[in-house]
Design goal:
This protein is about 45% helix and about 15% strand. The protein is an alpha/beta fold. It folds into two domains: about 210 residues, 3-Layer(aba) Sandwich (Rossmann fold); about 170 residues, P-loop containing nucleotide triphosphate hydrolases (Rossmann fold, 3-Layer(aba) Sandwich). α6 links the parallel β3 and β4. Pfam families: DEAD (PF00270), Helicase_C (PF00271). Keywords: ATP-binding, Helicase, Hydrolase, Nucleotide-binding. It comes from Thermococcus gammatolerans (strain DSM 15229 / JCM 11827 / EJ3).
């Protein structure tokens, strides 16, 4: 198909959603070919009506563009007031959402700014004083600005909760409710989430007016574009097996439980000539941004991270996610592997299992409603190791009690 034909196809695909020519031009520059399910469902509703929306969709399906494009269309550039506020659970996600909105605004003079903790508050105050149309921020820092009087939400028309389930899990519900009370009553509330826990439904019932619920992926908890497998291996052999995975074409994230593990593993990989670096909560925000920037630019291809540090990371080209440490629960597993297999590109998730962990992992996979294959890299675990781990698991659950 000739390039001109492709461009016309792209234009018509998004044109049916009711977007302006300016937004269509921005979409073309981004390289979006056709709207994703969540974009197709949400964009027309936001452009046409005054409804509140609860959107459930798996990670990596273009939720940001789904709410960003209609918000950009509705912004009045001549009013130097905050017309939309978007709350995110982490600093990294706040920056990514802000950058995504900037890339979609085209030639329209919409000023977007991210505010979050871990950075000096002075530059943020000065930016807000100059005039910002869209504020993207973490709940704690947004509330800080409100209490200081440096952020005014009296003109807000759109109130967005991005990754709402994560924010509730992290204990932000009181901050969110306080921020909502500081915004006008006549505003449109949009909640986007991968899951729909009771906390979100209660929040919606309390603050939203007959919201439309859009369930794009109710039965697809785990991204369908991710091939999943597990590797059974003895602890002493785990690092050697990891090196077999980090071959040509690898570009991904290795998840560990602790900050210390990320440092030690990344240093060991660098000694073996891998382009690796660590990302964890002990690092300053500036250091985390530098590391993630190097990863996004391809200067390093292996990011060794904790779950907290990796929340909200959005890189479409990630080929692999490796669970070097077994996830604690199904939600953590889903969050981790959701970093790959994004926007129509296939990805691979590999989970390393020590003796005795296979039972816990099967339970995680069962709750996630997925089938995970045994990798060819798996080793035969000697019977004595299995028996020792069964004994430890028995004692962990029952102590020395015998039946």
């Amino acid at each position: 198909m000739r390039l001109s034909k492709v461009r016309e196809f792209v234009k018509m695909s998004f044109e049916r959603l009711g977007l302006s020519e300016s937004s269509l031009e921005a979409v073309r520059r981004k390289g979006f070919e056709v709207p994703t399910d969540i974009q197709r469902e949400v964009i027309p509703r936001l452009l046409e009506g005054e409804v509140d929306i609860i959107g459930q969709s798996q990670t990596g399906t273009g939720k940001t563009a789904a709410f960003a494009l209609p918000i950009i269309e509705a912004i009045d550039p001549n009013e130097k007031t905050v017309q939309a506020i978007i709350l995110t659970p982490t600093r990294e996600l706040a920056l990514q959402v802000a950058n995504e909105i900037k890339s979609l605004r085209g030639k329209k003079r919409v000023y977007v700014y991210a505010i979050y903790g871990g950075q000096p508050i002075g530059p943020q105050i000065r930016a807000l004083e100059r005039g910002v149309h869209v504020v993207v921020g973490t709940p704690g820092r947004v509330l800080d600005h409100l209490n200081r009087g440096t952020l005014d939400l009296s003109s807000v028309r759109f109130f967005v909760l991005d990754e709402a389930d994560r924010m509730l899990d992290m204990g932000f519900v009181d901050d969110i409710e306080e921020i909502m009370r500081r915004a006008p009553q006549e505003k449109r509330i949009l909640m986007f989430s991968a899951t729909m826990p009771m906390g979100i439904l209660l929040l919606a019932k309390k603050y939203m007016r007959n919201p439309e619920v859009i369930l794009v992926s109710r039965d697809e908890v785990v991204p369908e574009m991710v091939d999943q497998e597990y590797v059974e291996v003895l602890p002493a052999r785990k690092y050697e097996k990891l090196k077999e995975v980090l071959g040509e074409g690898f570009y991904g994230i290795i998840f560990c439980h602790t900050k210390r593990e990320t440092r030690e593993l990344s240093e060991r990989l660098r000694r073996d000539s891998f382009r690796a670096d660590a990302l964890n909560g002990d690092m300053s925000q500036a250091a985390r941004e530098r590391t993630f920037g190097r990863f996004k630019e391809g200067k390093i291809n292996v990011l060794v991270a904790t779950d907290v540090a990796a929340r909200g990371l959005d890189v479409r080209e990630i080929s692999h996610v490796i669970n070097y440490s077994l996830p604690m629960n199904t939600e953590q597993y889903i969050h981790r592997i959701g970093r790959t297999g994004r926007m129509g590109k296939r990805g691979k998730a590999i989970t390393f299992l020590k003796p005795g962990e296979i039972g816990r992992f099967r339970d995680i996979a069962r709750k996630a409603k997925v089938e995970v294959k045994r990798s060819k890299l798996s080793e035969r675990i000697p019977k004595r190791f299995r028996e020792e781990d069964l004994e430890r698991e028995y004692r962990r659950r029952w102590g020395r009690k015998r039946f």
